[in-house]
C-alpha cells in the first residue's frame, strides 16, 4: 500500500493525463448516448469536475494524494500556456474579413456581459471591486473569469464562482440557441459571426450553432475565438480600473 | 522539429506574461494585466510570419497545435481542483450572473446584425 501511494504521488502529472483522457471519453459518451448531443461533452466534463471538486477539500480533488497531479495540469502555468496556443486558430486576414461589425460585437458582448454579470454579483452581496470584476469576467467565459481573478488577487472561492458562472453560460447557450435562433434571424453567416462575437463561449457557440444549422458553425466559432482574448485583455485592466474607480 | 513550435509558443507566453506583469506594476494595481492576451497577440503575429514555403513549417506548427488541443483537459483539471464547496454558498450568483448577462446579449444580436447588413447593402 505504501509502495502504491509513493508511486501515485511521484507520477502525479502523468496520472492526470490518464484521468483527463478517461474523463473526456466518458463525458463525450454521456453527451452522445444519454443527452443526445444537447449538452457538449466538454460542458458535462467541467460540470462533473466541479461536482467532484465539491467532495474534495479546499484544493478540490487535489486534496487526495492520487489527484495532486491535477493541480499541476490545471495550475496557472499550463492553463495560460495552452490558452495562448489557441491563438493559432486566428489570422489577421480573418479579423479583417469579419469586419467592423465583428469587432463591435466583441466589444459590446464583453462589455454588456461583464457589467451585467458583475452587477448581479453586487446585488447579491459581492460588493467589492475584486468580486465585481471576477464575477463579471466569469460571466464572460469560464476562462476569462479565473485568469482575471488570478491577476487581481481574488480568492479561490470567488474564482470558483466565476468559473461556475461561465459554465452556466456554456450550458445555457447550448440549450437555448436552437430554440431562439429563428426569433433573432440566426440563419446567415453575418448574424452567425455577430452571434459568436456577442456570446463568446466557443464550446457553447459551436454546440448551439451545430444544433441550429451546422453550416453556421465556422462563422460563429471564428469570432468567438477572439472573445476570450478581448475579455482577458479588458477585464483585469480597463474594466477593473473602472470598477475600482466607482466602488473604491 | 516540433520543439521549434513549442519554443515559439513558450517565447510568446513568457514575453506576454512579462509585459502583463510590468504593465500591472506600472499601473500600480499589481498582478498580471492581460499577459495571456499579449501572448496571444504575439502568437497571432508569429503565425502570420510563418509561411508555408518555409522548411519544416508544418512540424513547427504541429508543436503548437498539440498544446491548443490540450486546453480543454487543462480547463477540466482546473475545475476539478477548485474550492467548489466554498463557492456553492454563492451558487445562485453563478447561475444568475451566467444566465441573465448572456440573455441580455441575445437581445442585442439582431440589433447589431441589422446595423451590419444595412451597411453592407449601401
From TrEMBL, chain A:
Organism: Fulvivirga sedimenti
A Pfam short name: MadM
Lineage top rank: taxon: Bacteria
GO molecular function, one term: sodium:malonate symporter activity
Domain Malonate/sodium symporter MadM subunit N-terminal intervals: 5-246
Keywords from the named record: Membrane, Transmembrane, Transmembrane helix
Protein name: Malonate transporter subunit MadM
Ranges annotated as spanning the membrane: 12-30, 36-55, 67-88, 100-122, 129-152, 158-180, 192-212, 224-247
TrEMBL record, chain B:
Pfam families from the UniProt entry: MadL
Keywords: Membrane, Transmembrane, Transmembrane helix
Domain of life of the organism encoding this protein: Bacteria
GO cellular component, one term: membrane
Species whose genome carries this gene: Fulvivirga sedimenti
TM region(s), chain numbering: 23-44, 64-84, 90-109
Name assigned to this protein: Malonate transporter subunit MadL
